[in-house]
Amino acid sequence: MQESTPLITNDAVVLGILVSILAIVFGTAASKNPFWQKFYRVVPTVLLCYFLPSILNTLGVISGETSALYRIASRYLLPASLVLLTLSIDFKAIIKLGPKALTMFLAGTLGIILGGPLALLVVSIFDPSVVGGVGPDEVWRGLSTIAGSWIGGGANQTAMLRTFEPSGELFSQVIAVDVVMANLWLAFLLYWAANPGRIDKLFKADSSAIDALQKKVEAYRGSIMKIPSMADTLMILGVGFGITGLAHWIADFIAPWIGTNYPSLEKYSLDSPFFWIVIIATTGGLILSFTKARNLEGVGASRLGSVLLYVLIATVGMQMDLFAIMDNPTLFLVGAIWMLFHITIMLIVAYLIKAPFFYVAVGSQANVGGAASAPIVASAFNPSLAPVGVLLAVFGYAVGTYGAYLCGLLLQMVSNL
Asked: Per the UniProt record, which residue ranges are transmembrane (predicted)?
């Protein structure tokens, strides 16, 4: 991770830069200029919204490490966007998507559990020092925390940190591997989300259920669409941030209560406030989709939800520092092989069961990115699909600690060979 002070440290200025980037990207994407029309046929808008902030972070103009914007966006804007994106969803149609989504998620989990030890074994053949270290500096201890992050999320990573207790210096190095590898893969998924048809055709995948869900939501939007008034817009924001506030309020009670009275549930991340914030916000949106609040979609609920989500995408982008690869190239090689194995397993399973690329992308991010980025990838396919990403990410929280612990034991076994 970068250690020098960034050129811009004021988060108000950084937020202005990020929102300006979003405005420029979408402004040029809407342009009728032939150059921009050709440009955006090749480069998806969502990829630019993610990649441009990462360039500024890499060059030291801004810093995702020192800025509080990602935490604010993930804690406040993400749950509000989830509420607004789920208002018009057809929950029954999501259920009809079938078991392939869950199958792809589990394939991704298996790829991470086995991929870490395999990557460590392969790299150790060329560089035995990668399995070295003594006590808290044993490399496998640090790598186990990546498994926690890539199967569940921050809470599961913390669980592995407490379980295997790597040194602070080693943990800092593997955090860089975690962030860079995960974000490079996210960039790839955002690129292909704009044109999944080519991969679906290669896999002979049946995406009819996904297409049906999109068409149903879009038809409903078209039937209730109208020009929003000030009251309509404030009603949308009131619902989104009202449910978000409620989610925070409940999480502030239930998470500490579970942590104090049922510490054994920590392995399910049930003592994590963020877990409950995401669950309650998504549930609130789904409940409202059965009420008249669903009509807020006609005055732009999902559009405002998408705006909030794109601000989150920009803050996620500013977490990536490509220069960090130079800190410990061998560890990054382990991370790259690890991620490649995860991807390979997912693509093989997708080909065998003829799963659409949407399930590959969202199933992977429900593992690697969790509740913060799974809905981003799902929304890149279509905003109406964001809840699918959230629901799969919940599975990541549930199995993350178990899967990461097993991976940690396998990593230890490889190191002792």
From this structure: 12-30, 42-62, 68-89, 101-126, 170-194, 234-254, 274-291, 303-325, 331-352, 357-378, 390-411
pLDDT tens across 158-190, in order? Answer: 667 777 878 877 877 787 788 788 888 888 888
User: CB count, 10 Å around CB of 378?
Assistant: 27
pLDDT at 403: 86
Please state the pTM of the whole predicted model. 0.72
Burial string for 321-332 (b: 16+ CB within 10 Å, else e) reads beebbebbeebb
The whole-angstrom separation of Cα 9 and Cα 194 is 33
The DSSP result for 152-219, as a single string, is: T-HHHHHHHHHHH---HHHHHHHHHHHHHHHHHHHHHHHHHHT-THHHHHHHT---HHHHHHHHHHHH
- Please, are residues 110 and 338 in contact by the beta-carbon 8 Å criterion? no
399 versus 84: the higher-pLDDT residue is: 84
How long a stretch of residues is the chain? Answer: 417
pLDDT tens digits, 296-312:
988 888 889 889 988 98
Provide the 10 A C-beta neighbour count for residue 387: 21
- How many other β-carbons are positioned within 10 Å of the β-carbon of residue 366? 34
Token reading at 221: 């939007």
For the chain, how big is the Rg over CA atoms in Å?
Answer: 21
Close Cβ partners of 344 (under 8 Å, ≥ 6 residues apart)? 111
Tokens of 290: 């059965």
Give the domain ranges of the chain. 72-416
Task: Give 145's Cβ-side CA count (13 Å radius).
Answer: 28
DSSP 230: H
pLDDT score, position 22? 95
d(CA 381, CA 204): 18
